[in-house]
Amino acid sequence: MDYDIGKAFERIEDELIASMIRNLEQHQIEEITNGYRWPQWQAEQLKALEDYKRRNKDKFSKEYQTINQNIRLALQNSYKDGATKQERKILQAIKRGYKGVGTNAPANVDNVTTSGEFFKINDRKLDALIQATTHDMKKAETATLRMVDDQYRKIIFNAQVYANSGAGTYRKAVDIATKDFLQAGINSIQYKNGSRHTISDYADMAIRTAEKRAYLQGEGEMRRSWGISTVILNKRSCPCPLCAPFVGKIFIDDVWSGGTADEAKEKGYPLLSEAIAQGLYHPRCKDVHTTYFEGITTSEENYSKKELDEQKEKYTAEEKQVYCKRQESRHSRMSKYSLDADNRRMYAARAKEWRERAEEYGKFNTDSPYVSERSKSAAANIKSVVDTKMLNSSNYRRMFDRLGENEKITRSIFQQSKAMLNHRSGSNFEDLCFIDSKTGKFLTRTDYNVEKQCVPSNAMKKMVGKAEERTIISIHNHPNSTVPSLGDINAAWNKKYKYGIIVCHNGNIYKYKVLGEYDSFRVNFLLDKLHTKIYNENIGENSIYKMLD
User: What is the DSSP letter of 443?
Assistant: First the structure.
């Protein structure tokens, strides 16, 4: 659509957050040390909150009206577009000799109604779709403003609590108070499954889904007017797993084109409503059907098992790319609106990491299977070249003695670490090794060539499955010499490692393990804290850092 409604809501969210942070920064009291002036600061902020609420209601109510008008226009255009294109296809099929069979015989071409009359007659369902969509959007808009007000009030009081607990400077106290809010964004929309989403994300899903339904509705009404109800699901690259089984199949459209169960029984085709009940045309679905003309349309072949597996792999990469982009957006928002300079720098670095991961998944999805040799040449990274002198030094070797393992296991860990650093020097790729600390057996994977990822082989997965809990030591390299990621911590917890080791190309070594219950909030906090220490150079090179104990 020409007017991107999701982007419009994203801009409003950004402006609401920016205005809140400006208020928090404007009323800063630099000389606060013991909290005795925080009540004064709170009073100023509560006064600013009332102005903030009034300003937002006046300003964004008008903007919401414009957005809702554009929603109506977008759905009307999609409906007309679907009907017009479908009419053209039907006329072209008739010229190619389509006569129709039984109840599907088309009307006399010379007596067809004009497009103008068609749109006047067939707008009842469209109006219902528009009313439902704009009604839901208005509820979401109201919820967004209400949530921002509630979060602002919560931040005002939390900031004082953190300051009184010794959080440090004013800026750090405010950053801690706003962290959860900035991480999540204005996630005022809650789905039935309990997941929460921002209004921009919800709008993108809802409007795209509604536009598609309007388009299919326009197509269906045009088919109905010609007495045609047979459709076929088009074959496309990277279908979603829910829709792939229906590709190439012919249906009787009883949802939009007026098909009936009797017609489906007579022709031997399933009803489209049955496929939809099984998952076809879920929210954000990109698949689409087109008219099937008996004797004219060539039926498309279904996906083979091999094709389905390949398409599932592509779809998974696409989903991971979307996740990485969301994480990038989250950390970019935290970098942009944090008051403390160190925090801004830290979150910007993490946003960059997520952006790079998203780019890699994009490459994988665009050109799959990923060609390893070309990947190696494209991934050359001067910054990840390992200093062989450092690697062969006695000081580096002695670092592994601090792990507390017996001589055999220590030697194995050192040898595998050294081997993967030599192998991946100058690249952005990672090797992975599992060592059984009880038996000394080990397995490695050195052939996985997707940047900044390491995936265990089937044999390695079986090894972890058969081993006793807390006996497997996992080792992998980080070409950019970063600390353990949240994914690394998740793997250590899910697979119940004894501990994990990351060997960095700059000589750093990080040891991490999870004991007791897993707390993702605490893990994220510790990762942030570790990032801050490194950026402030509080952790020297060639060090072993225990993440959790």
Answer: E
